[in-house]
Amino acid sequence: xxLGQNNNTLVNPLAAQAMEKFKYEVASEIGLNVxxxxxxxxxTSRDCGAVGGHMVRKMIESYQNQAAGSQNxx
Length: 74
Description:
By secondary structure, the chain is mainly alpha-helical. The protein has helices at 16-29, 45-73.
């Protein structure tokens, strides 16, 4: 997606930088080299989708671990 075309809004606008950093961390974990310019247009749709899919997977895993931890405390 090109710069300025993002229609997704975050519940907490302060999380935008953290989500951007998280995206780059996940991309490096799965072996993608994203240019520092931030332009993702050179990557395939499959690669970009893999980044998003891994981000969601990690967020769900984090939530489940957090929920399981709070269950054990009760």
